UniProtKB/TrEMBL annotation, chain A:
InterPro entries: 2-oxoacid:Fd_oxidoreductase, OFOB, PFO_beta_C, THDP-binding, TPP_enzyme_TPP-bd. Keywords: Iron, Iron-sulfur, Magnesium, Metal-binding, Oxidoreductase, Thiamine pyrophosphate. Residues 52-195 form the Thiamine pyrophosphate enzyme TPP-binding domain. Pfam families: PFO_beta_C, TPP_enzyme_C. GO terms for molecular function: iron-sulfur cluster binding; metal ion binding; oxidoreductase activity, acting on the aldehyde or oxo group of donors, iron-sulfur protein as acceptor; thiamine pyrophosphate binding. CDD domains: TPP_OGFOR (cd03375). This is 2-oxoacid ferredoxin oxidoreductase. Its cofactor is [4Fe-4S] cluster; Mg(2+); thiamine diphosphate. Residues 199-260 form the Pyruvate ferredoxin oxidoreductase beta subunit C-terminal domain. One of its GO terms (biological process) is cellular respiration.
Automatic annotation (TrEMBL), chain B:
Residues 11-162 form the Pyruvate/ketoisovalerate oxidoreductase catalytic domain. Residues 191-430 form the Pyruvate flavodoxin/ferredoxin oxidoreductase pyrimidine binding domain. GO terms for molecular function: oxidoreductase activity, acting on the aldehyde or oxo group of donors. The lineage of its organism: Bacteria, Bacillati, Bacillota, Clostridia, Halanaerobiales. Keywords: Oxidoreductase. One of its GO terms (biological process) is response to oxidative stress. InterPro entries: 2-oxoacid/accept_OxRdtase_asu, PFOR_II, Pyruvate:ferred/Flavod_OxRd, Pyrv/ketoisovalerate_OxRed_cat, Pyrv_Fd/Flavodoxin_OxRdtase_N, Pyrv_flavodox_OxRed_cen, THDP-binding, Transketo_C/PFOR_II. Residues 456-542 form the Pyruvate:ferredoxin oxidoreductase core domain. This is 2-oxoacid:acceptor oxidoreductase subunit alpha. The keyword Acyltransferase does not apply.
Length: 284, 559
């Protein structure tokens, strides 16, 4: 097994002490090490936010791009490189707010990408505004009378869209989180893991304690391939929050397989321009 | 000999097919052909027309006067009849109170194939020109294949050919026919294919869409991936991700889509990721005139995205240039690890022209990636390693065993890690600027100069106005004037040596461009301090044409 310490970036983070991003990072390193994946075999894509700083704090190939835009470059990369593991790490604002259009279409595409959403139900980096998943009981500086739109349910959304892998995990249960991460990385297709990640600074409602009291692991006899059961499970929130693989559909083919003419090493394959003569003759 | 055919009708009447068949057939017969489109933003109805101009000498732009008008509907007659020359012919199937040639197209087609109405007009026109039918038939066969459709068309062509007498009697050029008949977007798309583009993502937007169409329809043959993105933001970010992966990547759009890409453009800039973007202009702002043409985005593309970072803008002057410049854009993007914008426009996108075959043998792909076999084992890889010329060794993830590659949109250090200290910030800005200076020295082509030494007037232009302007200049010089022209293709950074030379002459600078504010003129004044004496500006959504240019220059400038 790969030593999990090789993922240490040896850098000071900009995260607050006690932030849920720390156990998340630790779990990720353990998940990768457990799968025998070395840092050079992973490409991580992020947007902007506290969560999105991950490639600076863990040693893997990294692309720290634009707010809300982690999925598109991950897809472009996936198309030209079928070999590396592609992981997207992003916040709930990044993914479901600014990036809403991209998650919608990437579920439709089903590229082979593991997507870990650090869902702290708040905008951390910009200091505590509501995110699409912020609960109705929360008030912020920008939403002084309470949030103005109904909370977005990412699990229900992804299940309804027919995503090929939809899971929820909690940083307070690291063993389970690692298990979910590994299953997502090994899943051939788009795998969304919504990770409950307390923001100790700006979200005083959804704390470790709050999640601990409410979250529970799905039973062994829960069948994630049953769409109807998944839709029902996806509705659960509040007093009982299910953790685990809520839905999976392995019948869906990964996006790149629809381009069956793509070779695995085409990044290295260049033809001489003269070899395009027959294509030029179409214009003769 | 110089003949101008106009085919006018409404959307959905198959104008494009007629235009392609006539254009290609004339090209095969050895003529120089230039065709341009004029269409409205609708799928059916409205008024559209195609111009096909051909001659035994080079024709490179549209003219106003018409030799043969093929009017597929009544509007076609009404709108264009005044432009038809005195000895010109109008072909029309209908009843009007004026001088035209009655073509019983519907009646003739009804008996053979009602869908092939246009073929009757083709037969008439072809006979008027005195050209051999075989050329037409061959092109139709290539388009529809052998079978009923082809047979019906041949039947109608032969029947129509019998009905009229030759009027124009075009003499066939002799010698072997070589060369291509291609439009601007095809040239860009084929240039990208030849340069080895491996990933193209775009969101459809007129007039850039045909680049997407071309590459998408040949992606399996080329072994590449083409994706219709959910929006332009996704398109550019996908392309940057593919470029990170080591592939040659490109996106294409028009002004509105480019506005959405602006943040991504800066991302490629600070990440130092090679990227080629085709920005095919149409009049704006916002949705503007969707199917018309303009050169109104010059200032925008060179200044797009916040902050400062190097990029290059190339505005191809014609179809041939569009091909070579697109190929070159990929090499420059790779060499300097920055975005290169191909700034074209609707007019060039759709204009078909006969040009020499591309010299594929002379082209060389230069990736400028590290060689994994030569990377020293004990050397740590740093994506943004500081070097004298600002260009860092570029590797893609997985290329160097045990090493990782980190790109960042935040300001970063040599490793790609986020920084906030002022010293590193300055180093990184200087590094990116150093690349720009190197590019200015090594890869910035001076504008093309044509004309006499020390002319009285110098026509200065960029991009697609080249062809019409050149013809206009030739005509004026034929009338005894002394006029030269400077045509920019590399437009940012602005190459200034040729312009500076003009300081020493007593030459009046006349800037000719397709926008209302004189963006090129302002750029020249800002970059060189030279004074522009005249501006010829056009912003009615139509391209410059030779006749109009001659008239305007004679009336307003040279007098
Ligand atoms: C285009 C753009 N808009 C806004 C921002 C400012 N911004 C940075 S992070 C962020 C929200 C982050 O929230 P989330 O994704 O939930 O991540 P967290 O910080 O909570 O981990 C915003 C609005 C930006 N960087 N870019
Ligand atoms: S603001 Fe919240 S999410 Fe961000 S680092 Fe601090 S605790 Fe973590």
């Amino acid at each position: 097994m790969v030593d999990k310490n090789i993922f240490d970036a040896d850098r000071e983070t900009a995260w607050c002490p006690g932030c849920g991003n720390f156990p998340l990072r630790k779990s990720l390193a353990e998940a990768l090490a457990g799968l025998d994946i070395t840092p050079d075999r992973v490409a991580m894509f992020t947007g902007i936010g506290q969560a999105a700083k991950m490639p600076h704090y863990i040693r893997v190939n990294g692309f720290n791009g634009l707010h809300g835009r982690a999925l598109p470059p991950a897809l472009g990369f996936r198309m030209v490189n079928p070999e590396l593991k592609v992981i997207v790490e992003s916040g709930d604002g990044d993914t479901y707010g600014e990036g809403g259009n991209h998650i919608l279409h990437n579920i439709r595409r089903n590229p082979d990408i593991a997507h870990f959403v650090h869902d702290n139900q708040i905008y951390g980096l910009t200091k505590g505004q509501a995110s699409p998943t912020t609960g109705e009981e929360i008030k912020t500086e920008v939403q002084p009378y309470g949030i103005t739109a109904a909370p977005f349910n990412p699990i229900k959304f992804a299940v309804a869209m027919g995503a090929s892998f939809v899971a929820r995990a909690f940083v307070g249960n690291q063993d389970h989180l690692i298990e979910m991460m590994q299953a997502a990385i090994e899943h051939e297709g788009y795998a969304l893991v919504d990770i409950l990640q307390p923001c100790v600074t700006f979200n005083k409602v959804n704390t470790y304690q709050w999640y601990k009291e409410r979250s529970y692991l799905l039973d062994d006899d829960y069948d994630p391939t049953d769409y109807k059961a998944a839709v029902e499970k996806a509705e659960e929130w509040g007093d009982d929050i299910p953790l685990g693989i809520i839905y999976r559909n392995d019948a869906r083919k990964p996006f790149r397989s629809k381009f069956d003419w793509l070779s695995d090493s085409f990044v290295k394959d260049y033809k001489e321009p003269a070899e395009y003569d027959d294509l030029m003759q179409e214009f003769a | 000999m110089d003949i101008n055919i106009v085919v006018a009708g409404e959307a959905g009447q198959g104008l494009k097919t007629v235009d392609q068949i006539i254009g290609k057939s004339l090209h095969r017969l050895g003529f120089s052909v230039f065709s341009s489109k004029n269409y409205m933003s609708r799928i059916r109805g409205g008024h559209n027309f195609m111009q096909i101009r051909f001659g035994d000498e080079k024709v490179a732009g549209p003219v106003e006067e018409i030799d043969i008008l093929i009017a597929l509907n009544e509007d076609g007659v009404d709108i264009h009849q005044d432009s038809v020359k005195d000895d010109g012919v109008i072909l029309f199937d209908g009843d009007k109170d004026l001088d035209y040639m009655q073509v019983p197209a519907k009646e003739m087609a009804k008996e053979v194939n009602p869908k092939a109405v246009n073929t009757v007009f083709l037969g008439y026109a072809w006979k008027l020109l005195g050209l051999p039918l075989d050329a037409l038939k061959d092109v139709i066969k290539e388009k529809f294949g052998e079978g009923d459709i082809y047979d019906d068309n041949v039947k109608l062509l032969d029947a129509a050919y019998e009905k009229v007498d030759t009027t124009f009697d075009c003499e066939l050029p002799d010698g072997d026919v070589k060369g291509l008949y291609i439009n601007g977007n095809q040239a860009i798309a084929f240039g990208a294919a030849t340069a080895g583009v491996q990933f193209y993502a775009a969101y459809p937007m007129t007039p850039s869409t045909s680049i997407l169409n071309y590459l998408a329809s040949r992606q399996d043959k080329l072994g590449i991936a083409v994706e219709q993105a959910e929006d332009e933001i996704a398109a550019i970010n996908m392309a940057i991700g593919a470029s990170f992966g080591g592939a040659r990547a490109m996106t294409g759009t028009s002004g509105g889509g480019f506005s959405l890409m602006a943040e991504g453009l800066g991302l490629a800039g600070i990440m130092e990721t090679p990227l080629v973007i085709a920005e095919v202009q149409r009049p704006g702002p916002a949705t503007g005139l969707p199917t018309r043409t303009e050169q109104g985005d010059l200032s925008f593309v060179i200044n797009a995205s916040q902050g400062e970072f190097p990029l290059k803008v190339i505005a191809p002057r014609d179809q041939e240039d569009a091909f070579y410049q697109t190929f070159r854009a990929f090499n420059i993007a790779d060499k300097y690890q920055l975005p290169v914008i191909i700034l074209s426009d609707a007019y060039l996108a759709d204009a078909g022209a006969t040009i020499p075959e591309f010299k594929l043998d002379e082209l060389k792909i230069d990736r400028n990636l590290v060689d994994e076999n030569e990377w020293p084992e004990d050397k740590e890889y740093k994506r943004y390693e500081l070097t004298e010329d600002g260009i860092s060794p570029r590797a893609y993830p997985g290329q160097l065993e045990g090493e990782v590659v980190l790109l960042d949109s935040d300001e970063h250090d040599e490793n790609g890690f986020i920084i906030e200290d002022g010293e590193t910030r300055v180093k990184m800005v200087d590094k990116r600027n150093a690349k720009f200076e190197k590019m200015k020295r090594e890869d910035n082509e001076e504008p093309l100069y044509i004309g006499p030494d020390k002319p009285d007037y110098m026509l200065v232009s960029f991009g697609s106005t080249y062809g019409a302007l050149k013809e206009a200049m030739d005509r004026l010089n034929g009338n005894g004037h002394s006029i030269g022209m400077l045509s920019f293709s590399d437009i940012w950074p602005l190459p200034t040596a040729e312009l500076e030379k003009q300081r020493s002459y007593d030459t009046k600078l006349v800037v000719v461009e397709g926008n209302s504010t004189g963006q090129l003129a302002s750029l020249i004044q800002a970059e060189t301090g030279l004074t522009v004496d005249h501006r010829i500006l056009k912003y009615d959504g139509r391209p410059f044409n030779v006749d109009g240019l001659v008239r305007e220059l004679e009336e307003e400038v040279i007098s």
